[in-house]
Design brief:
Structural class: mainly alpha
Radius of gyration: 21 Å
Shape: globular
Low-confidence stretches: 1-17
Number of domains: 2
Number of strands: 0
Strand content: under 5%
Distance between the termini: 21 Å
Mean pLDDT: 90
């Protein structure tokens, strides 16, 4: 029996989790997030400095938390029916406005971003409360609202302040409050369809990786030549290696353990592994997209500090997310990927001294080496896991 069948009876609008799949409306909803990711890359591309990287990561964290809230919502209720469908359309409009404002979310469009973002966050609580009639779930929603309501309000306050440092500090406080909600108040009263949840987050990883492909095209600002073509192909190799690192085996192992969990243990895995530990992966891919874009734009010059940090620091952050997930699930280390993190960080100063094209070649070699090592080292385990999964 599924956790839904063993814990609590569904309320109005709540669906059984035994065979729940991602609905077309959820994929449609995610298209707005796709655009938002490209806008985050644009924000950092326009200001490729430490300040720009920091602002991009803050905006990404806010967008991620908003998207994750709706992943939980649509995992729990049938959001593609009745009034909920129309409300989700309204949320898409709010998120689109927020995405349009992302490149200047710390400048002229700070207040516009904050208001649109707050509307999307607050509608989440309203939709969940409107669709649910279960007492335990209602109490969980109230607990989450304690942070989900005031945190976006702080972003509006930040939008009214002209001082950049003060605005950034308020952003950090607001996000800390929002992210702390599930940790401080817990998630008891909710339940999770493991299959749907893993599929939804897997799709968002693909969406993020798609941004690294988009960055290749966006980085071409001059006539195609051999250098740009080689850099583009190397960027594709990096993206393919990152895809392989997640989807070949590791996502299958994680989903299997997730589906085997029961009761509140499953809720905690959903919170820790997917809501929290997938964020470093997404942030890493967005940073890599920035590094690829800057590499394609000028293959014959060394990368500046921020793009070099974005490219190799992004790779390190992506693997760090995998390491964190493995530790959370098994309390063991991903030794090969730990080494990859160390090597990635060590290559940052190297990328500042050599031309961008060789730097991209190093990134492609590193990410490919991780895959080659694991395919050879764990060949039998890999075949067995994939056979069992399929």
């Amino acid at each position: 029996m599924s956790v839904a069948e063993t814990s609590e009876a569904p309320g109005q609008g709540v669906v059984d989790d035994s065979d729940k799949q991602v609905a077309p409306l959820e994929l449609f909803f995610d298209l707005v997030f796709v655009f938002a990711l490209t806008q985050v890359t644009e924000l950092m591309s326009e200001n490729p400095t430490w300040e720009g990287l920091g602002q991009g990561m803050l905006v990404l964290a806010a967008l991620w938390w908003c998207w994750g809230a709706y992943a939980w919502l649509t995992n729990y209720i049938a959001a593609d029916e009745g009034l909920e469908r129309l409300l989700i359309f309204g949320v898409m409009g709010a998120l689109l406005i927020a995405a349009l404002a992302v490149p200047h979310a710390f400048g002229d469009d700070a207040l516009l971003f904050a208001i649109a973002y707050a509307l999307a966050r607050w509608l989440h609580i309203f939709i969940w409360a409107e669709a649910n009639q279960n007492v335990d779930t209602g109490q969980a929603i109230v607990r989450l609202a304690r942070t989900a309501l005031p945190a976006p309000l702080l972003l509006i306050v930040a939008g009214l302040i002209d001082d950049g440092t003060t605005r950034a500090v308020i952003w950090i406080v607001a996000l800390a409050i929002d992210f702390a909600g599930p940790l401080v108040f817990g998630l008891r009263g909710l339940r999770v369809s493991a299959r749907h949840f893993a599929e939804r987050f897997g799709l968002i990883v693909i969406i993020a990786l798609g941004e690294s492909i988009v960055a290749i095209g966006a980085g071409v600002t001059s006539d195609l030549d051999a250098g740009i073509i080689v850099a583009a192909l190397l960027g594709v190799i990096v993206s393919c290696a990152l895809w392989w690192a997640y989807f070949d085996v590791w996502s299958l192992i994680t989903e299997t353990r997730f589906r085997q969990a029961r009761g509140y243990s499953r809720i905690l895995i959903a919170r820790d592994v997917y809501s929290y530990l997938h964020l470093p992966m997404i942030a890493g891919v967005v940073l890599i997209a920035l590094g690829i874009k800057k590499t394609i734009g000028d293959v014959d010059e060394p990368l500046k500090t921020a793009p070099a940090v974005a490219l190799f620091g992004g790779i390190a952050l992506y693997y760090a997310g995998h390491i964190g997930i493995r530790w959370r699930m098994t309390h063991t280390l991903f030794h090969g990927r730990v080494v990859a993190v160390v090597v990635s960080v060590a290559l940052i100063p190297v990328a500042r001294e050599i031309d961008a094209l060789p730097a991209m070649a190093l990134a492609a070699a590193l990410t490919s080496a991780v895959i080659l090592y694991e395919v050879l080292r764990y060949a039998e385990d890999r075949r067995r896991i994939r056979a069992e999964a399929h």
